[in-house]
Design brief:
This protein is an alpha+beta fold and about 180 residues long. It has 4 helices and 11 strands. Strand 1 and strand 2 form a beta hairpin.
Length: about 180
């Protein structure tokens, strides 16, 4: 390991994340302190309906005081697999049920300050019903064509980075699907 950890302690926490403060020895031998935001892994799910439309959500995000275009996403609950979390978030945020759920891979979400791992999924043949939003979620569900969503992602109109990444990871397949 490049850094040597001397001690670790949780200095702040809430139900969604905590801040761990580590006393470390830097690579040059000097002592240092590093703060790490500890957060459960999360999932992002790109829902494509049987009619070849994408169910995007438009969420109001208090943290940035802005409306953001996103795909369904959320943290894993204790003991929950990424695939089960993806199914749960799909149902909760757009009322969706996938005919096929494909794992695309994972990425670190903010590796300079946070240990959160994002797991990415493509949900195909999605059927939609009534979503079950949480009380703090302000979400609108919008069905959009594949070309429109790809254009939005490429023009940076989808301003949630993991959502844009998942869409762009699937771009080739989506273009073939759209014909």
């Amino acid at each position: 390991m490049i850094f040597k950890t001397i001690s670790q302690k949780i200095v702040w926490s809430c139900p969604w994340y905590s801040v761990r403060q580590d006393e470390i020895v830097l690579p040059d031998g000097r002592p240092g302190v590093y703060n790490v935001v500890q957060k459960e892994a999360a999932v992002w799910v790109l829902p494509v309906t049987k009619e070849k439309q994408i169910a995007l959500i438009r969420s109001y995000r208090y943290t940035v005081d802005d409306w953001c275009w996103e795909i369904p996403a959320g943290s894993l609950k204790t003991g929950q697999s990424p695939a089960n979390a993806a199914r749960s978030e799909l149902a909760e945020e757009v009322g969706g049920q996938a005919g096929l759920l494909e794992y695309l891979g994972q990425s670190y979400m903010a590796n300079g300050i946070c240990d959160e791992v994002g797991h990415f999924f493509l949900a195909m043949d999605v059927t939609l019903s009534e979503p079950a939003h949480e009380a703090a979620e302000v979400i609108e569900v919008h069905l959009k064509s594949i070309p429109e969503v790809l254009k939005m992602a490429r023009a940076n109109e989808i301003n949630d980075a993991p959502s844009a990444l998942v869409i762009l990871l699937c771009a080739g397949r989506l273009e073939v699907l759209a014909g």
